[in-house]
């Protein structure tokens, strides 16, 4: 996974006691963003995922595993008036996410410290849900960094558990948006169907034209019965660097990914 260049400099400061953070921006600097200097670092994934969520002003959006809040920050910048809640189990990240939301003036976005498998919300509480769940399997070597391992390592049943938990709090016909390694799309599709979500769309993210997709966005609606689709997708890089189409999403608050345009 590629990391974003968050601003021209990576200024290191202290936050939450001994936790060192770097300070920069998202969406071409339109959003101020601070993240922990060690552990999981933000890549393209949350920005692309947020651009695929079909939220409107006034609707409630939940992100499981929000980290420092990158996806919700991007969504709030794109959709004025959206009401967002992030779930994060790691205390320092949960505090940092709330600080990021406040620093950008997003008063209707907040972070709750909780486990994504046991979320403290009633059924049907949200119009949209999104997540980039842990995706390393048991055969993958765990990171020696505890925070990075927590963000990435998926034990048995974790993907299905996250999807089931997200679907439980999603209203009927509400949308679920996931960004995952391409190798996980079959398991995610099965878990979505098991959780009562249908009309599944697969949106490939190709590293380069002609290369196999390494990451995919999977979208569905709770209770929907429409056909499953493989969409045109997005090429991320070319010989010059990030493609203009990808840069439009990564660098502009108004740009979206067309997962739902033909739904």
Keywords:
disordered N terminus, 25% helix, 10-stranded mixed beta sheet
Total discrete domains: 1
Helix/strand order, N-terminal first: EEEHEHEHEEHHEHEEEEEH
CATH fold group: Rossmann fold
**What is the CATH superfamily label?**
Vaccinia Virus protein VP39
Number of helices: 7
What's the story with the biggest beta sheet? 10 strands, mixed
Q: Approximately how much helix is present in the residues? A: 10-25%
Poorly predicted residue ranges: 1-18, 138-143, 145-153
The gyration radius over C-alpha positions equals 17 Å
**Top CATH class:** Alpha Beta
Amino-to-carboxy terminus distance: 28 Å
Account of the protein in words:
Strands 4, 5, 6, 7, 8, 9, 10, 11, 12 and 13 form a ten-stranded mixed beta sheet that branches. This protein has a single domain (41-251), classed as 3-Layer(aba) Sandwich (Rossmann fold). Strand 5, helix 3 (91-103) and strand 6 (109-113) form a beta-alpha-beta unit. The protein has helices at 45-51, 70-78, 91-103, 146-152, 158-168, 185-194, 244-251; strands spanning 11-15, 19-26, 31-36, 60-64, 83-88, 109-113, 126-131, 170-181, 197-208, 215-222, 229-230, 234-238, 241-242. The protein is globular, with a radius of gyration of 17 Å. Helix 5 (158-168) packs across helix 6 (185-194). The model is unreliable at 1-18, 138-143 and 145-153 (pLDDT under 50). By secondary structure, the protein is an alpha/beta fold. Helices cover 25% and strands 31% of the residues.
